[in-house]
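request received
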Amino acid sequence: MSKFNQKYEPVIGLEVHAQLLTETKLFCGCSTKFGNKPNTNVCPVCLGHPGVLPVLNKRAVEFAVMMGIATNCNINRHSIFARKNYFYPDLPKGYQISQYEEPLCENGFLKITTKDGVQKNIRIKRIHLEEDAGKSIHDKSDTTLIDVNRCGVPLIEIVTEPDISSPEEAYLYLTKIKQIVQYLEICDGNMEEGSLRCDANISVRLKGDNNLGVKTEIKNMNSFRNVEKALEYEISRQIDALEDGEEIIQQTLLWNADLEHAYPMRTKEEEHDYRYFPDPDLIPLFINDEWYNKINHSIPELPDARSNRFIESYSLPKYDAEILTQEKDIAEYYEMVAKNSRDYKSASNWIMVDVMSVLNSKNISIKEFTIQPENLSKLINLISDGVISSKIAKEVFQIMLESNQDPEIIVKEKNLIQISDEKTILEIVKKVIEKNPDQLNEYLSGKEKVVGFFVGQIMKLTQGKANPQMVNKILIEELNNKKNKI
Amino acid sequence: MQYSNLSEKIGLIKSGRISLIENVETFLQTIQSRKNLNAYNFVFEEEAIQRAKEIESKIKSGQSGKLAGAVVAIKDVLAYKDHPLTCSSKILSNFISIYSATSVQKIIDEDAIIIGKTNCDEFAMGSSNENSFFGNVLNPVDDSRVPGGSSGGSAVAVAANLCDVSLGTDTGGSIRQPAAFCGIFGLKPTYGRVSRYGLTAFASSFDTIGPFAKNVHDLALVLNVISGKDEKDSTSVNQNVPDLISVLNNQKKYKIGIPKEYFAEGLDVEIKNSILNIVEKLKAEGFQIEEVSLPMTEYTIATYYILITAEASSNLARYDGARYGYRSDNYSNLEEMYINSRTEGFGTEVKRRIMLGTYVLSSGYYDAYYRKAQKVRRLIKEDFDKVFQQVDLLITPTTPTTAFKIGEKSDNPLEMYLSDIYTTSANLAGIPGINIPIAKNSNGLPIGMQVLAKQFDEEKLISFASRFDKT
Ligand SMILES: [Zn+2]
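response:
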């Protein structure tokens, strides 16, 4: 926020399109599989041939209702489909089947928490079902090719009220949307691949002003970071324009991520009158109690609830709980590790630090991570039982990563069990003190720093296996004994 | 003809007194000799003969379907796999369908022989069959006159013995009006009774598919076969389909209403008198007959043309030259391709309706036209609901005039639209209606009587109509 002129406040509304993970398209039986050869997932219906009719995919309705419930919306038991009419080569029917008046879900909200810990509700105006368009592919020879595979793939459009007041909030809201669709398993949430898409409406106004300023729309932001950058760009642009006494022109802009600049679309393309009207080929969608309840029961535990449960059941700090529940698969991995380990916090640390850094450096998901949760639990238990030190544990973790072995076996085979026997440690301590009379003298003359040197020597001798707390305790006692003898 | 209806025909084939192959050949010869009528866009000679051979042996072995041996013509707005589907439009003049309409598949499954696809007004828009890329269809009774539209070819094919029965479509009277002009039976079923899957959409909430026949038995038989809920059409209705053959000649004395608004100004006197004559006879036979009122009648034409053009403007958007159908040679960018393909590919009436429909859906006009017309449609439907609480059937004229001269109304779209004045209400209300040929006027032109029933009461229409069947 501080980036912008403090006189102004931005007003942002987002429209998010999420591609639903149904097996088949919204109005025909064609596969939704991504990456098939162009124009192979097609039939007369999605090709828009004369005489075809749409038949609604019930699964897609269920997914949309799940999203509605998860975002605290009212589910309209009676909703209707409408045609949005416009000409485009990748839109075979010359209209998109969408919802306009009477959408499936209305008046919900999502809670976000800003970095300062401030909670805020972003109101959701509506969520409706619609079909995706195809893809136009412009090749080198100046001709345009059309791939109809994506045509008719189900989408939900989630529209907020203009409640978002900074790029950061927009980012948090999107993260939350992604988190929820992934928890619901209704969309893979991948913005880079286009399964989640976001358009933004932006205006700025003087702080305290109740009227909204003239808004612009930005499209084509294909990552979370791009949304933040594009919003920052556009807010600054509008503020600068207003400061220079210019008027904001209502227009649609396309974000260019490479140039970090937004360019106006040709006005012709945005001046659409979509001539929405109820689609006479589809009867109104009615969701009775039985169906509603069935859908409601199928909703899994959502991120906020799970985070709260982590705080309560595993006594985790809020910070840990939030990070661990960010991704459903990681949360599930944590629970599998925690279930068998005797130190929940340690399990959290291992996942947040060691596991996540492996995921990041290898750029893999938790599903591709090789260490089985029960093995990670064993490793954690080896530490909390004092069998190995946490330092040795890091080594074992590396071996586990490469060999996928049981840590108990690694520890035995490599003889890494911690030395926790007082007598053994005392002998080693005595030996090390004897061997290093100079350092002993330094200690006796008051240089206590030299303790670190002795510890290092002991660890070296034991290959790091000596229990560090015990080494510390016994070493200090021995050194003090020497001191007292003088 | 050597038979009076299709069940008689099957009997004759079975007993060897008719050869189905010869029968098909006779139809093909008649089609050839009456080519001037221009009833067909496409005739499938070899296929029909081949199929006749197969079905003849099926009939003889006793394994045949309900429409075995029936030689059927289908309107060229119905999809028939691997056959042209042109809708009598230049824009689809090169189009071959890759699937079959449910209704077409059903008649094939019951062993009908599809002999060809019939001419019609372009995209079923018209009342005279003068709006076809393939030229006018002539009325076989008087070839200086129109056969009616839009299913003119299907009506003529039956009337001129170019097939046994045919399928047409009715969006505002396109089965009943040409049936009246050609002097045959034609039935528009309840909306939702017959699957629309594979019927090229003109006005989706009005379009229906129905049969033409010279006798009520065949009309009932075909209607029985094509009716029923279809998973591919969400607007088709899961409603029991009664055995319509069993209600023929059951002599039920239904309670009949005469809506006074349908006999007011503008109705040809000879038509009016013919119908009132019939009404008198029915009274004499003991039918209970009463005058009823449908007060919203004066709004039907306006409501109809607002709603059907709105739906048409959207339904016809897919014909843009981008993926299939006609594409202009003359363009240098996408917009020009759209504009020139559609300008060159569509005829005048289709363009007029697309423009009207685009207008009534435009922002700023939607509420005043489209939304208001939807409300009026509901009121019109309520009119009928009320009346059908009092009576079983309504008797009205099918058309305000008998078949008019070719060219007589083609320069005056409004006058042309008024020729649908008695038929559009059934499509607005979604109810079934039938044309019964009842007489000929002083010029020998057929006069039709329309009978309407409440939703899913086709049974009553068939039963009542069978009284007038002289075959
Ligand atoms: Zn498909």
